[in-house]
Amino acid sequence: MGYPLAIVRIKKSLLHALPLVVGESGPSPLAGPFDGFTRVRLSHAIGRFPFAVKVENGLRDTYEIEAPGGGRLEVWITSDGHLFLDSQAGLELVLSLFIELLGVSPHLAIEDPQRGVLHGAESFKAFLCGEETAEKPLKAYVDDDAA
Question: Which residue range(s) make up the domain with 41?
Answer without folding.
Answer: 3-142
